[in-house]
Amino acid sequence: MSRKMSQSEARGLAHAKELEGHLGVLDSFTPTALGVLATASGIYTYLGVSSLLDNNGAMTFFAAVAYSIAVSVGIFVFWSFLMRLLPAVRTASARIGLLLSMGLGSLAIVAMSSWLNAAALAGAAAVEQHLAKTVQDYQSSLERAYQIATAGQGLERDVARVRQSFTDLSEQEATGNLSGLAGRGAVFRVLNQKADELQALETQIASQTPLVEERFDQGNVILSRMRALTVETGPVEARSVEFSEEAVRLAGIITELRQLSVAPLVVRAAQDLSQSVVLPQLDGRTEEDRIGQASTLESVLAVLGQRAETLRIAAEGVMSMTPPADVAYTPVSAADAVILYAENFVPSWAGAIAIDLLPAVLVLILMVVQAAIRSGREPVAIEDRMTMAELRAALVAAREVEEAMDPEEEHSDAADASHPENVEPLEKPGPVKGTAPRSV
Which domain holds residue 398? Predict the structure, then answer.
């Protein structure tokens, strides 16, 4: 005799039956919802694949369609398996195995579908982000090249100062305040020679200033056009082609600016200033005058070496400035741009992954509900779990079994009657207890 069901077991059984009813309703449209999610993912996957393929022919179209259909079918089948199997298993090892399989399958779905979905959702914006970043890199490189070129042009003031010092010394020599001999003798010619060399260098530096400004202005015009291309309407692929052409032009401008730097020229001029000195013949009338000229020339050469060293240090300081970075525009596809700038498109990535992995949440919900159903049903005996409908169905089935067995019993009884040897003999009745035998 089965024990009586307690109130807590009755409540648990009622709760389990209630959950089973809800699952029955949800099962009626869950496959449809899963199919809609898989189809949506396939559509976005098609858009992402199309952005990767260069050709626009029929074969490319069918290839993209085939890939997207394969993704949709794979997602539908994968999550259908897990929705049925994972909530049904009971052992811990089976659950862990299926959970690991779900994790591996989720990674495969992200690899084959989610990143393409993200490319479809934010591919154009990611390419525009790449264009904008490239513009910033080119702007930094252009400004750095202009800064170095301007610093080189600033050496003109240093050259002018040294040239003026030699001009002043030559004037002093002409009045006799330097060597004591008035006129334009040997010392004067040396000082004037170096002043002329520095004047030529100064003129050459000044002639490049308009070129530097012109190239910088041209670079800014190109940058403005590149910025406009990043925000214009229309297909980003066409804008990328024009952007690439402008980038090539801007790279040429930056190279010209780097070549316009006069710092190397000033370094060479400073070396020649002290090393290439043509000493004229001393023209003093007396030996004492010639000795005075020689002494003055030594002093002039010493001053010349100091001025040359000052120019060289200033020019090398410009040359030691950090050069502009080498920038080269590399066109990228929408899918590559989404990966390259993933941190800037987190919402798009989240939506692309969620549309593929949302069924994982449904699987976990089913696991919890099935566990709750089992916890409510298992403590109750089987006969106590049966509903009235199940009991009627059981009675009908039992009656059908009995009816199916009755013709076989009747056939067996008829066979026994037709063979008397199979009938057991009746026992001879004995005297009835409580009565005495009659005498004859």
Answer: 383-409
**Residues 225 and 322 reside in one and the same domain:** yes
Packed helices 186-231 and 236-259: angle between N→C axes, nearest 10 degrees: 170
How far apart are the C-alpha atoms of 290 and 286, rounded to whole Å? 6
Residues 138 and 119 in one domain: no
CA 227 from centroid of its chain's CA atoms: 23
Q: Number of folded domains in the chain?
A: 3
Q: How confident is the model over 353-382, as pLDDT tens digits?
A: 988 999 999 999 988 888 877 776 655 555
Q: Tokens 């024009």 correspond to what residue?
A: 242
Cβ atoms of 102 and 86 closer than 8 Å: yes
Query: DSSP letters of 386-434?
Result: --HHHHHHHHHHHHHHHHHHHHHHHHHHHHHHT-GGGSPPPPPP-PPTT
Please, which residues have CB within 8 angstroms of residue 285's CB and are 6 or more apart in sequence?
none
| 287 alpha-carbon distance from chain centroid | 85
Question: Are 336 and 118 within 8 A, CB to CB?
Answer: no
Tell me what pLDDT residue 74 has. Answer: 92
Same domain flag for 243 and 290: yes
Flag whether 439 is in a domain: no
Instruction: Please identify every stretch of the chain with a pLDDT value under 70, giving residue numbers as ranges.
Output: 1-16, 54-56, 172-188, 274-301, 376-391, 407-440
Residues 316, 354, single domain; the answer is no
Burial of 8 (0-12, 13-18, 19+ CB in 10 A): exposed
Residues 6+ apart with CB under 8 A from 184: 173, 174, 192
User: Looking at 300, 319, 336, which one is the last position of a domain?
Assistant: 336
CA dihedral 213, 216, 217, 218 (to 10 degrees): 120
